[in-house]
Amino acid sequence: MTTTSPETGGHPGAPSPPGLAGGPGDMTAPGVRVRDLVVVYRTPLGELPALGGVSLTIEPGTITGIVGESGSGKSTLALSLLNAVQPPGRISAGSVEIDGLGNVLELGGDDLRQARGRHLGYVFQAAQNSLNPLKTVGKQLLDLGRSHGADDPRALVRDARSLLERMGLDGARVLDSHQHQLSGGMRQRVGIMLALVLNAQLVILDEPTTALDMITQATILRIVREVHKERGLTTLMVTHDIGVAAEVTDRLAVMYGGRVVEHGPTMDVIGAPSHPYTQGLIRAIPRLSGDTAEARALPGRPPTLGTLPAGGCVFRERCPLRMDVCETVEPPPVLVDRRTVACHAVAGARQERVVREERVVREQERVGREEERA
Asked: Where is region (Disordered) located (predicted)?
C-alpha cells in the first residue's frame, strides 16, 4: 500500500485536515540525514551487503535524484527511508534521521505505521503493486483514510478527485475503476495521488516514469514539479534515466555497488562529472545530434551481491583511473567543487591542486616581501 501523511506540521500526531486542504504554508518540508547505512541480504553465501555504509543528506524542500545502474542499491536505499526493507534483507547498521520523526530505524509496530502514514509518501516502481486488484481505487482510498484517521471521507474523495483531474484524468471514473481498467500511465498517476492525498511531506518516487510513453512521462514529470513546489515537499526520485533526473531534480546522487560515489547539484554533476563512473554514465547516453558515435557503453558489468569486493573501491574493476590503493582502501568522500566524490584518483588530483595553489600563494607572499624590502 502507498504510504501517505495527513500531517501539516513537523511533529507526528499534530491535528490536520483529511485531504489536500492544507497549503504549502501549512507544512514544513523535512530534511533527511542518512548516516553509515548498511543493508544486508541473507544468501547461501551468508549475509552480503546491498548498501555498504551509505551516508547522504537530503536538504529540506529539494528534489534529490538517485541514479545508477540496476543493482546499485537505489531502491534499497529508498525503502530504508521507510524502514521497509523486507526479508531476506535487513538493516544491520546506521541511522535515518528525518525531521519531525527522528531515527526511523528505531521505530516499530504501530509507531512505524503511523510514521509512514503521517509523514512519508511512497510511489512504487510498478504502480500495480500498490493497488488491490479486487477493490476499486475509491475503496482503497477510503481504506487508506480510515487506517490513518481521516475523519471526513467525503473531503478525502473530493480532494482525490481534484488531484486526479489536475493530472488529466476523469477523477470520478478512475475512483470507480479497478486497476485492470487503467493503463500503466493512469495507474502511475493513481499512485502519485495516493501518496499525496493525505499531505505527505517527504515523497519518494521509485522509477515513476518506467515503461511510460514520452508524452505520459512528460506529464508525470510536470506533475512532480508542480506538486513539489505548491506543497513545499521534500522529494526523492529514484531513476535509471539521467535525462529524467536532469529535467526535475535539484541535486543528484550517483550510486554504484551500494555506495554513493558522487553527490552534488544536478547541473554540476551532469555538466562536469568528477567520478569516473559518473563520467561513464554520461558518455553512455545516446546522442540525437552531433557525433552519435561518441556514445560509448561502460566496459564490464555492474557487480552483484556475490561479486562485490570485500575491500577497496567497488568500481575498480571497470575504472580507467585504477590505482594500487584502490585494491585495498575504500575511497572516502571528499569535497570537490560543491559536491562530494568518493574516488582516490579525484582526491589525489584535488590534493595536487591544493598543493600547487599553496605554492603559488607562498611565492606571491615571498615576492611581496622582497618588494617591500626593496
From this structure: 1-28
- pLDDT computed for residue 269 by the predictor: 95
Q: Is residue 199 part of a domain?
A: yes
Of 253, 270, 287, which one is at a domain's C-terminal end?
270
Whether 89 and 186 share a structural domain:
yes
Q: Within this chain, do residues 112 and 154 fall inside the same structural domain, yes or no?
A: yes
> The domain that contains 261 carries what CATH number?
3.40.50.300
Distance CA 354, CA 360 (A): 10
pLDDT at 76: 94
- Give percent of the chain with pLDDT exceeding 70: 85
Whether the upstream peptide bond of residue 17 has omega within 30° of 0, thus cis, is no
Return the pLDDT at 184.
83
Look up the domain containing 137 and give its range: 24-270
Residue count of the chain: 374
Residue 300 and residue 175 share a domain: no
Contact 325, 349 (CB under 8 A): no
Whether residues 144 and 282 fall in one domain: no
* Number of folded domains that form the chain: 2
User: In this structure, are 265 and 131 located in the same domain?
Assistant: yes
